[in-house]
Each structure stands twice: as C-alpha cells, then as structure tokens.
Amino acid sequence: MAGEVSGMSVTEPEAIIFFDGVCNLCNASVQRVLNNDKSQYFKMATLQGAFAQNFFLEHAFSGDVDSIILYEKGKFYTYSGAVLRIAGKLRFPYPLLQALFVFPAFIRDPVYRFVARNRYRWFGKRASCMIPEPRWKNVFLDT
To answer: pTM (2 decimals)?
Structure first.
C-alpha cells in the first residue's frame, strides 16, 4: 500500500492474510499461523475491515472470496492455493502440506469451497471480529 500516513511513507507488507473475522474456523487458522510464523512474515486483516476494502480497491482486486485470501509479493492467491502457500512459510510440519500442490486446482479448490461454504454450520460464527492479543498488535493491519 504505497501512500502517505501522517506525512510518513507506508511500505506495503510482503504478505497479508485476509480472513473472515467472524468465522471460528478462520480465527483458529489465524491463531495457528500466528503461533507458527515466528518471523512474523505474515500480516493479518479481516475481510470485514476497512483496511481490506481499501486495499482491494487500491489493487483492483474484485475477487468474490469470503474466506482466506493471501496477498504475497504483489499477487493475490485464493482458495487452496492461498492455504498451501501460507503453510509453506510456517514451521514444520506445515510445509509438508505443499505436497498437495501435486493435485491441480480444479481438484483442490472444490474441496476448499465445500468446507468454506459449510464453515459456519460446522465450526460456528462469532458476533464480531476477534480482537488480537496485545502481543499480536503489530501483525494486524485493522487495528
């Protein structure tokens, strides 16, 4: 996000995970990423937040994805591709999940979409987006 904030230049993060902030499965996944991304490579933002809406507008991203979106090094990744790319940056054993890239997206993505479509029914939904613990405040872009 090249721009100005209070006269200071803002550098765009290398990788941002956009997630459904009211989804219990998504929030559990974000907690797993936070606990296994020791270098804090990923920044986080809820899909419901103003940061995501402005970022998508700025980057002309009009994807109709309502669960996890990864923005990394200037590109957007969705569905199973986003999840597997995220797994590859985490501590062992999560990078092993990248072996699933052997299956083409037309096979992986329907499975991902099936889970995403049923996530509220199976895992529940929060009334509002999670508030990050103070130790994660520098990781979340919504705050």
So the answer is: 0.85
